[in-house]
Here is the input.
Amino acid sequence: MKGLSGSIVALVTPFAEDGSVDFGALGRLVDFHLENGTDALLTLGTTGESSTMSHEEDDEVCKFVVDRVAGRVPVIAGSGSNSTQTMLEKSLGFQKMGADGLLLITPYYNKSNEEGIYRHFTTVLDAVDIPCILYNVPGRTGCSISEKNVARLAKHPNAFGIKEASGNIGYATKIARYLSDDFCMFSGNDDIVLPMMALGSRGVISVWANVQPKEVHDMCHAWLAGDHAAALKTQLAGIELVDSLFCEVNPIPVKYALELMGFGKAVYRQPLCEPSDAAKATIAAAMKNAGII
Here is the structure.
């Protein structure tokens, strides 16, 4: 994890027709990423629909992905919860299963005040022995990690970095002052990967990479290598596809996109459901224009 940079896929969790986790399809997706240069896999994040999965299912998926990857790239497990105690228990469990890192989200719904959010994170940071990525996504959670808390948390030895998914470049610029060799940033928005990398981000935790893993990997590493023109070409070429993957709430479109790629039927856990006919047409057109289907 220490030198991790590039493309971290926010991996979907495929479900079978009966609603159970489809481990066969999950294995094929893991292999797809290992074959196409994805730098790390994030399982059980927002895109992985973990919010509608049981703790037992979370454990099974984490263990399966860790075992399938077998140390070839880092596996990061989303252990976040609005209950600090639950996040702590899940974090310790995923660490024991062999996860290389953890993704920790702010306490949604109950939200908390600034000190409570700081304690929410430090409770886990103090207890685990693996690197943790803080997850700032106020559009989902209703609260943000304040600049002051980023400055405080960045000093913790187990705080590896932050996934910044507010889409607010002004906020990202402010917290970029706290980046170092020991605390990094990853873009949480596929449409502004390069602007974020210009601020010091090491890459992206990506929905887009589910369908174009090689392109997202190559784009990030081109930027890091100084080939900004090549990276920019990929970012701009991918905008139509990225927009289509968010034409309805994530992960509805990306699961349909994977269905079009032959990875099995898109099945969702309620309250998520299949995209509208108009959204399906938008996704299919973007996939065709990108040469994926």
In short: The longest strand covers residues 159-164.
